[in-house]
Design goal:
By secondary structure, the chain is α/β, with parallel strands linked by helices. It is built from nine helices and seven strands. Strand 1, helix 1 and strand 2 form a beta-alpha-beta unit. The structure holds NADP nicotinamide-adenine-dinucleotide phosphate.
């Protein structure tokens, strides 16, 4: 006997925790993944107690291929079938490319890109076999543009957007949907600890993890290929997309320089 579960990576904090809350509130049994066992354990107990769903957790460092394999093996051993995969875990290292060590860049790519490939490759095949499944990849508004001082981060998020859109087309008609969720600045530890100053213009509000998660849940359940939460972010992305490339690049460089 297998049990359907929603797997949420990076579920101990921030947007991942909010996504876990929202999926649980809609009745999904969960498996939470992140590195810190203590935080996962208390999150799982709180979610299960409040919503009544079953909530398991697996502590793993997803930058490591062996840990990705261990998560997959553990899911099998516990009799879980992942019918919703939420690839949310991600890191951001602020700084000009040459001022950040190559090892840190590689670690970012290991998590933001390679772990997504590993988990998706293993789990999407099973979804296709059952002709049912949903994949939600947490990308970013930086998926759409270059971001000086976040070169590898923005490139990793551009990968996620392109990957998600391509995969959603490959799996069309197979019962499996793929959604790229593209939030802008959101009030989490990533922003507080990553060195990224919050937006300083009062007209540009940062998002809250809860509103990002609700938007992501709705898009995932609808099977939308791309979702940008928040009106300002949608307008900014759309506006820049319809701007000549050289104007777009100069605008981004100016915004970075004056630090709005
Ligand atoms: N905050 C924003 O403004 C923003 C905007 C756009 C997109 N995003 C994206 O949203 C996602 C979540 O970001 P967030 O702001 O919620 O970040 P966060 O608050 O820093 O949370 C990151 C989560 O990922 C987990 N994690 C980090 N390294 C890991 C690893 N090696 N293996 C497994 N889990 C790991 C963390 O738990 P442990 O430390 O316990 O491992 C935590 O649960 C990321 O993909 C990020 O790029 C964020």
């Amino acid at each position: 006997m297998t049990r359907n579960v929603t797997l949420v990576t990076g579920a101990s904090a921030g947007i991942g925790r909010a996504l876990a809350d929202v999926f649980a509130e809609h009745g999904h049994d969960l498996v939470l993944v992140a590195r810190s066992a203590g935080q996962l354990k208390s999150a799982a107990a709180e979610i299960a107690g409040r919503t009544g769903v079953k909530c398991d957790w697996i502590a793993a460092d997803l930058t490591l291929a062996d840990d990705c394999d261990r998560v997959l093996a553990e899911l099998d051993a516990r009799g879980f079938h992942v019918d919703v995969l939420v690839n949310n875990a991600g890191v951001l290292h602020e700084g000009h490319f040459l001022d950040v060590s190559a090892d840190r860049h590689v670690q970012l790519v290991d998590l933001n890109v390679l772990s997504v490939i590993r988990l998706t490759h293993a789990l999407a095949g099973r979804m296709r076999d059952r002709r049912a499944g949903r994949i939600l990849n947490v990308a970013s508004t930086s998926s759409f543009n270059p971001v000086p001082s976040l070169a590898c981060y923005a490139a990793s998020k551009a990968f996620l957007l392109s990957f998600s859109e391509s995969l959603s087309l490959e799996l069309e008609g197979e019962g499996v949907t793929v959604t790229a969720l593209c939030p802008g600045f959101t009030n989490t530890d990533m922003i507080a600890q990553g060195g990224r100053a919050p937006m300083r213009l009062p007209v540009i509000p940062n998002l809250e993890p809860r509103e990002v998660a609700e938007s992501g849940y709705a898009a995932c359940m609808k099977g939308d290929p791309v979702r940008i939460p928040g009106l300002f972010n949608r307008l900014a992305v759309t506006g820049l997309r319809h701007t000549p490339d050289w104007v777009r690049r100069r605008t981004i460089a100016l915004v970075e320089r004056i630090g709005v």
